[in-house]
Amino acid sequence: MPVRSKNVSALKAGYLFPEIARLRREFAAKNPDKKIISLGVGNTTEPLLPHTCEGLVEGAKKLGDAKTYSGYADEGFSELRGAISRVFYNDTFAADEIFISDGAKCDIGRLQLLFGSSVKPVVQDPSYPVYVDGSVLHGAAGRRISSCDGPDCDDTRYGGIEYLPCTPENNFFPDLSQIPYNSLIYFCSPNNPTGAVASKGQLAALVAAAKRTNSIIIFDAAYSEYIRDPSLPKTIFEISSAKTCAIEVNSFSKHAGFTGVRLGWTVVPKELLYSGGESVNADWSRVQSTIFNGASNIAQWGALAALDDAGRTEIKTLTDFYLGNAALIRKALQVLHITCYGGENSPYIWAHFPGRGSWDVFNEFLEKKHIVTTPGVGFGPEGESFIRFSAFGHRDDVIEACNRLVKV
Amino acid sequence: MPVRSKNVSALKAGYLFPEIARLRREFAAKNPDKKIISLGVGNTTEPLLPHTCEGLVEGAKKLGDAKTYSGYADEGFSELRGAISRVFYNDTFAADEIFISDGAKCDIGRLQLLFGSSVKPVVQDPSYPVYVDGSVLHGAAGRRISSCDGPDCDDTRYGGIEYLPCTPENNFFPDLSQIPYNSLIYFCSPNNPTGAVASKGQLAALVAAAKRTNSIIIFDAAYSEYIRDPSLPKTIFEISSAKTCAIEVNSFSKHAGFTGVRLGWTVVPKELLYSGGESVNADWSRVQSTIFNGASNIAQWGALAALDDAGRTEIKTLTDFYLGNAALIRKALQVLHITCYGGENSPYIWAHFPGRGSWDVFNEFLEKKHIVTTPGVGFGPEGESFIRFSAFGHRDDVIEACNRLVKV
Questions:
Q1: Which residue of chain B is at minimal alpha-carbon distance from A284?
Q2: Is the CB of B15 less than 8 angstroms away from the CB of A295?
């Protein structure tokens, strides 16, 4: 039989979230009487609000009618591409700079294809696993340089990737002088998992660092609609010069509850060029039309509903609800004198347990409180001794989890 | 700025179907009074039938209800995975051998990641472009060895790919002795574009050739529901020993009209191992959970409706309709004494114009008859002097196109 790709075999076995799901199932099987509450995975729990849901229902009905049936939608409905430009980017992009997809994660997994293997992936440490794992799968990560191996080894660093520590000491914003030349900088704000949001000044510094090092930023703005502080930027393109050095990915998953609907987008400005002057936008169009076949039309009709006035109000209602959960979790952790970050402009709370391993803390919460969290080290070496709490949950469950937390 | 990936720059500019769409738009702009009929792209045109559509509508409604809301569905609803095994594979696969995705093309684009760059891609010539283009994007194709360059160069061969001619002379079944050791064999039956369907004996020979050469088959069965001859196999797994050497991709696009809904699946048997004995199934699960995030839940509910008794009847009705179109097109071509193949167990008709270039014939049909077709050479060098007619169209349009064809 053919040999296994060395990139696949370089990947640490077990993606973080299926691994957590497995541990949860094992605990549940041994403790069938215990009610487990998940504050782990970032999976939305609340039903879609009526106007947005009606957009999806009407979209599905359109496919049953000869007058409104539609097949392949290629790079997306131009009406939706225009609406995204208007709502999120103040109409500063043409429709053909916005590409509709089935989700930000899928696009991040394909974007790596555009850049040669000589590019250096740069990630915040900790960060969402797909930046590192996607780089490994596409052969851009180099050798694993972990200090251990096996299922309980938490150290997952690769030689070809530059990790920028984001810790309480630097207020979760990295030392930009560490960015090498010719990098592909994955940057997420509001950050998953730390909940930190970069200021406009910080993003301007990031853009300047990208230009200085001939690098491109892949900016993950999937949580932008959780920002409540009006001084904080919701997109890298609030820095206007970012158009020559940044790609932005975003998604309806977390703000419109579309995790199970599947819809995202990627902005590739026409000003963005490779070192040889070729258009990145043209290549992305070629890649998407070649190995992707468009997002669901039903999801696109739903997204159009989510972006009109009534839909925008629903997005606000839904994100307010999850931020309400986040406030409850923060309060419970404060009662316990656990230092925590995030949760004010982000659905994630990053709790610090100095001197302890994050899988230990994960296991303690699961066994003693029957609460599923996410061990911080799963997001990178600097996540050790942290735990991520997700605010995605039913209110009753969150209240019960908080009561369990504060009970001695 | 970072350099462009050499794999992306190796790709011939312009994916076939957007290129055809561009030519169509140009013709329409110059001839606004002409009604253009498309028998080009394989895009479904008929509305979903009521029972299947109701499945989608009900699925969308479920997301608006707290009791039935769902988020990430990972590798797919287990109920759907089971239904696919039952309906298409006589229950010979466990649910976790069937992976639900947003479409066959997207899965084909990711499957290449599993195998090392030492694997040799093998394609039928002509074949669906994504096998070659996906191999190029993942660096498995080697250098372009075309005899020309530029937008009108039709020769798109790559040094690292083995092309197996499928022509009238070999009845569109390739010489299997040409398959190198350690290959990844892309094989499509019913074939796009030739419409040829391999017999059970031919598939048994293909499986034997794969085993003899330590190769893996990626079997594309996207048109299997168009098979009407009961002696013809609908899946590679009718050859039971294929479980140790084949992966099958399939889709609801062409038989349930889901081109705009987006739903497909891939079967990766647990018996399938790499040369080192590792499980391909486990790796595919890891890849899909890492750089993909599951198909739309609405689409999955629709697919469940499409696979019950009423839904299966609708699939039969819909594929019968398009086969009816195919019969009309075949008849018109026969009146013109144009030799054609396919169209009886497949929605594609492969028409031969000996001595002529296929872009010439394409242009003649567009300019004189205002009919969009697909030039055969777009599917590979052996497609030169052929034209693909697609049976996806409204009946009135197909009848009008046939009338235009036969009119002197």
A1: B8
A2: no
Chain segment B137-192, per-residue pLDDT in tens:
988 888 888 767 655 566 678 999 999 999 999 999 999 999 999 999 999 999 99
The Cα–Cα gap between B110 and B113 comes to: 6
Positive or negative, the CA dihedral B310, B314, B320, B323 is negative
Which of chain B's residues have a Cβ under 8 Å away from the Cβ of A108? 291
Total beta-carbon pairs less than 8 A apart between chain A and chain B: 298
Query: How many whole angstroms separate alpha carbon B325 and alpha carbon B318?
Result: 11
Q: Which of B50, B137, B297 has the CB atom closest to A291's CB atom?
A: B137
B249 φ/ψ angles, rounded to the nearest 5 degrees:
-110, 145
Q: What is the mean pLDDT of residues A176-180?
A: 97
What pLDDT is recorded for position B228?
98
Residue A119 is encoded by which pair of tokens? Answer: 């590019």
Does A130 touch chain B if contact means CB atoms closer than 8 Å? yes
**Residue B290: which of A113, A118, A133 has the nearest Cβ?**
A133
How much is the pTM? 0.96
pLDDT at B119 over 60: yes
Q: A202 — phi, psi (to 5°)?
A: -65, -40
Q: State the pLDDT at residue A142.
A: 81
The DSSP H or E segment spanning A327 is helix A309-335
The burial class, CB within 10 Å (0-12 / 13-18 / 19+), for B230 is: exposed
Tell me the two tokens of residue A234.
């919701």
Per-residue confidence band for A151, with pLDDT thresholds at 50, 70 and 90: low
Residue B347 has pLDDT above 80, yes or no: yes
Report yes or no: B299 at the A interface, CB cutoff 8 Å: yes
* Element of type H or E holding B264: strand B264-267
pLDDT at B97 over 60: yes
The answer to whether A50 faces chain B, any CB pair under 8 Å, is: yes
Cα–Cα distance measured from residue A144 to residue A22, given in angstroms and rounded to the nearest whole number = 25
Domains by residue range for chain B, with CATH: 6-48+310-406 (3.90.1150.10), 52-308 (3.40.640.10)
B26's enclosing H/E stretch is helix B16-30
Residue A406 has a CB neighbour count (10 Å cut-off) of 12
ipTM: 0.96
Q: How confident is the model at residue B1 (pLDDT cuts 50, 70, 90)?
A: confident
Indicate yes or no: CB of B137 within 8 angstroms of CB of A292: no
By C-alpha distance, which of A357, A130, A389 is closest to B289?
Answer: A130
CB of B72 less than 8 A from some CB of A = yes
Task: Encode pLDDT of A372-405 as tens digits.
Answer: 999 999 999 999 999 999 999 999 999 999 999 9
Residue A209 contacts B where some CB pair is shorter than 8 Å = no
What number is the average pLDDT over the span B230-239? 98
